[in-house]
Amino acid sequence: MINIKELSRTELKDFLVGLGEPAFREKQISQWLLKGACSFDEMSNLSKCLKAKLADCCTIESLAIEREQISADGTRKYLLRCPDGEYVEAVFMAYEYGNSICISTQVGCNMGCTFCASTIGGKRRNLKAWEMLDEFLVVQGAAGAINHLVLMGMGEPFDNYEEVSEFLKRIHDPEGINLSYRNITVSSCGVVPGIERFGDEFPQVNLAISLHEASQKAREELMPIARKYDLGMLMNACREHEKKTGRRVTYEYTLIAGKNDTDENVKALAELLKGQLCHINLIPLNPVVESGMTGSSRGAAKAFADKLGRCGINATVRRELGSDIDAACGQLRKKASDILT
Ligand code: SF4
Questions:
Q1: Given this model, what pLDDT does residue 340 score?
Q2: What is the pTM of this model?
Q3: Looking at CB atoms within 10 Å, which of 85, 160, 194, 221 has the fewest?
């Protein structure tokens, strides 16, 4: 049996032609799948015969909502169950400019960042393009229309480049969801070859880098990826990216109390990013019990941003959305797997 959602539009067209069907059937079926159809029977504009043929050789797999947590600030966090019983997380956030979703790209993560719950237990598998699309569709169906997308949930997108790339093409498809590339941000912890390829292939999609430390030694302690691609290599790739695409890179900097929020850290960051077209998002850490780390206070975060501003670096403190609902990456899945297993 083939899960029909695994097929790209071209593959689906070829498959249908192989079944002796006209190519235009592809568009009809794709539209039904985007509407969330769970069976071929629902596809009322297909012939009885085609429905039967499809049901004989294809399935329609879907992600299902296992849990929904709604924060007092309107943020909604979803634990989604994949057909093979794995779980991923997606977060829906309401902003003044519209609704945004943060999706996962892998089940678990191999990158080992010490402050992150997603990496506890390592990577279990990559998500397929259709599963990422389902994260979007299922959450949109439950929470409302979404116009911004961030790939910053569980997983490292460039450790699953092919599927992420296929997903970006699918969600941007003008005959499908038609989400503008400019409304999409892909976040990496610093996988340099992925950053280079991404700049060539998706110059209109925004790039965010999880930086979190501006000194090599400290970053290595926090993020093992820094041992493979050091800060020099990462900054070169980001400068190249800026040149190639003309777009500023966003740096995510999680503020951990007493660890990376000192004046020394301000100085190191300002030095590292000097002359770059960039923006820093400061995010006080949502604590993960296992890491033993706590986030800087809101006041400390604001002071950190002001000091960066005085050094000519543009920084904002991100609203702490959903801190009452395990909104930090991997927390809900971790908690659920503790309970469900
Ligand atoms: S922060 Fe991102 S890259 Fe690092 S372990 Fe967590 S999910 Fe993986």
A1: 41
A2: 0.93
A3: 85
C-alpha to C-alpha distance for 87 and 26, rounded to whole angstroms: 30
Q: Could you give the dihedral angle defined by the CA atoms of residues 173, 178, 181 and 187, in that order, rounded to the nearest 10 degrees? A: -90
Residue 200 to residue 193: CA distance in whole angstroms: 11
**Is the distance from the beta carbon of residue 127 to the nearest atom of ligand 1 less than 6 Å?**
no
Q: Containing domain of residue 27, as a range?
A: 2-59
DSSP secondary structure of 158-182? GGGHHHHHHHHHHHH-TTTT---GG
Check if the beta carbon of residue 288 is closer than 8 Å to that of residue 117. Answer: yes
pLDDT value for 287:
74
Residue 322's pLDDT is 67
Same domain, 53 and 172: no
User: Within this chain, do residues 53 and 78 fall inside the same structural domain, yes or no?
Assistant: no
**pLDDT score of 339:** 43
Domain shared by 105 and 9, yes or no: no
126 assigned to some structural domain: yes
Between the CA of 227 and the centroid of ligand 1 the distance, in Å, is 15
328 falls in which pLDDT band (50, 70, 90)? low
Structural domain includes residue 65? no
Note whether residue 66 is domain-resident: no
Q: Domain check: are 38 and 86 in the same one?
A: no
Q: Which atom of ligand 1 has the smallest separation from the CA of 223?
A: 4
Which stretch of DSSP H or E encloses residue 256? none
pLDDT band at 289 (very low <50, low <70, confident <90, very high): low
| CATH classification of the domain holding 209 | 3.20.20.70
Best residue among 104, 111, 293, 334 to mutate for probing ligand 1's pocket (most ligand atoms within 8 Å of CB) is: 111
Structure tokens at 16: 């249908």
